[in-house]
Structures are given as structure tokens and as C-alpha cells.
Amino acid sequence: MSTLYVVKIGGNIIDDEKKLSSFLKDFAAVKGQKVLIHGGGKLATKLAEQMNVPQQMIDGRRITDAETLKIVTMVYAGFINKNVVAQLQANNCNAMGLTGADGNVILAHKRNHPTIDYGFAGDVDAINTSLLKSILDQQIAVVMAPITHDQKGQLLNTNADTIAQEVATSLSALYDVQLIYSFEKSGVLLDANDDSTVIKAINPVYYQQLKSEQKIFAGMIPKLDNAFAALTRGVKKVIIGKAEQLTDLITGNAGTSIVHE
Ligand SMILES: Nc1ncnc2c1ncn2[C@@H]1O[C@H](COP(=O)(O)OP(=O)(O)O)[C@@H](O)[C@H]1O
Ligand SMILES: CC(=O)N[C@@H](CCC(=O)OP(=O)(O)O)C(=O)O
Q: Subcellular localization, per the record (predicted)?
């Protein structure tokens, strides 16, 4: 099987023009088939607040009311997705930007929770792997926005770390998938405020320990839950690390490796 790189890029990089442009140059240079999943939560929050639409996150998930859904669709599926695609084209990397509704690529359902109403937040049901493969086989990189749909006309907002995991997992039947979560820090850190404290490898037992000591918290929890899920569900390699070090993350020379044992 050939290798497929599934790379997630976090919201703090998306929001930094210089870092984003440098990251996209590196991503464009990655040889072989590749998928880029972007977030953009930071920009969506900023815009919503400017529009006086209050925002609330629970366990790394945005409570998505009707107004917020309009904003996140405009921000993720519109501005960010198309800007990323255009910049990849400028770096001689042919790319196609999609939401889950395009080509029925990601089917989801409205999140059903016994006590919390997440609004129009979606949980993934199915990925159209054959369509993704047919695009990738034409040497076109796929750029996914974190917007899905329920096939009844309803768009849904889905956490981008989860989309990366679901896309990586489903394509692991067809490719040797390497999943890379890239963001603004050097990896999973022993001290979240000290970039020199990168943990080289983390297994489920160590993860539980660091979580109970509150050394791992907030957005890093869903990221690691997704990272372990990907590994369990067939993804060959999962790395978390700094967006500026994409090449080193791919070669295993930087970041945190997620391991079974
Ligand atoms: N041990 C840790 N190491 C690194 N980051 C951590 C850790 N614990 C919590 N975090 C927080 O997790 C955040 C990353 O999660 P999130 O903001 O969801 O990522 P993304 O930018 O990919 O959307 C970091 O900005 C950091 O504040
Ligand atoms: C339902 C839900 O939480 N969706 C996320 C999608 C964007 C995202 O995940 O962006 P980052 O990767 O930049 O955090 C949100 O709206 O924040």
C-alpha cells in the first residue's frame, strides 16, 4: 500500500498569516498523496464576538446555534478553505477544497447528548473513501473544512481533530496512513507553557496519568483521544507537533509519537 499523509493544522496557525504561508509551502513540498484538514476555531470565535454572538465551548466542542452555524460555515468552508487552496496552488500543489457535503464526503448526524444541547454540532457516521481516493489518485491534495452534513439538508459543525481522525481511519483500509496533528506547540508537553519539555512518546497509561495530574488539559484531551482512536483503528503512525516542523514530524525527528504500549 502507498503512504498517505493526513495532516491537521490548528487554529492558531490558521490565524497567523506568516506561519500559515510557511506551513503551506512545506505541505505543498510533501511528496505523495496527502489530505489537509484545517480548523479555524480561533477566527470563528473572534468574528462571532465582533458580531455579538456569544460563544461557548464544552469539552473542546462549540455549542453551535443557528447564528453560529452561519458564521462557522462562512469562516471554515468559505474564507479559510478557499484561501488555503489558493495558497497551495501558488506553491504548485494542485488541491481541491471540500466540506463534508461536497460529494457526500462526510455524512454526520446532529450530536445527541443526554444533558447538553450542542446545537448544530455533528458526529461523523460515514466517509466517502472512494471519492477521496479518486481525487488523490489524480495527484490532487484534498483540503477538508470541518463542516459536515446529514443528507437532509442540514450542515453541521464538527471538531476538526475528529474529522482528521475519521478521515485517516477510513482511508487506512486503502493506504498506509500517517496522521499528523500540527499546531503551535512542539508536541505534547510535560509543562504546557514550556516548549522545551516535549514528551517523545506517549502511551495510554502515561496519558491517563498526565491527565489526572492536569498536565494535559483543554483542547489537548480531544486531540489525544482522537490520536489513540486512530492508532487503534488502523492508522500506522500518529504524531503531534509543531506546524513549523512539518518535514521533521514526517521523518520522526520532532514532535510526540503516539504509541500503543
Ligand atoms: N500537555 C500539553 N501540551 C501541549 N499543549 C497542551 C497540553 N495541555 C493542554 N494543552 C493545550 O492544548 C492546546 C491545543 O489544543 P487546541 O487548541 O484544540 O489545538 P488546535 O490548535 O489544533 O485546534 C494548546 O494550545 C495548549 O494550550
Ligand atoms: C463542533 C466544533 O467544536 N467544531 C469546531 C470546528 C473547528 C475546529 O475544530 O478548529 P480548531 O482545530 O482550530 O480548534 C469549532 O467550531 O471550533
A: Cytoplasm
